[in-house]
Design a protein that fits this description.
With about 170 residues, this protein is an alpha+beta fold. It has 5 helices and 7 strands.
Length: about 170
């Protein structure tokens, strides 16, 4: 199967809405559209602060991995799940703005690179961070499941440039 790539799917929420509308109308999704929807579901699960939603987007095996800014590599679903549970316990609210999405699919593996501006609210205040993320998915039983999430921090000045300068295909 030939690789499919879609650079800079700007306005991910808009793109996902269009793809979901196509799916509802019975039109088929491209593999790249499907992987972008899986990526959006991951960030929606993060915003929800609900473990059931986060569990639904991840593969549950020893091969999954998670790297978040300032933290060590976590390997295996149990470690990854424990980290998300701890994060969700400490947060009151999360909002994620995704931009600069680039996706590629080869067979049953796909990956998405994107920039995410994450605003978090705690009991005693809030924080904002911008990360460059790579999310790797595998297709299992017709579903795209996350097997690796790696996020690296970007400086605020660099983040503002990325959000303002990404070209839009629309």
């Amino acid at each position: 199967m030939a690789a499919q790539t879609q650079p800079w799917i700007a306005g991910l929420h808009l793109s996902v809405s269009i793809v979901m509308s196509k799916h509802t109308l019975g039109e088929s999704q491209s593999p790249v559209e499907a992987i972008c929807i899986a990526n959006q579901r991951f960030y929606a699960a993060f915003e929800s602060l609900q473990m059931a939603e986060m569990e639904a987007v991840w593969a549950h095996d020893d091969a999954v991995e998670l790297v978040q800014p300032g933290w060590e590599l976590l390997l295996g679903w149990e470690e990854v799940r424990e980290r998300w549970a701890r994060i969700f316990t400490n947060l009151k609210r999360v909002r994620v703005a995704v931009s600069g999405v680039w996706a590629r699919v080869e067979g049953e593996v796909g990956w998405v690179a994107c920039t995410a501006r994450i605003t978090t609210a705690f009991a005693d205040g809030f924080d904002e961070a911008t990360v460059q993320a790579t999310n790797i998915f595998v297709q299992r039983e017709g579903r795209w499941l996350l097997v690796a999430h790696h996020a690296s921090p970007l400086s605020n000045a660099r983040a503002r440039i990325l959000f303002a300068c990404r070209p839009s295909p629309l």
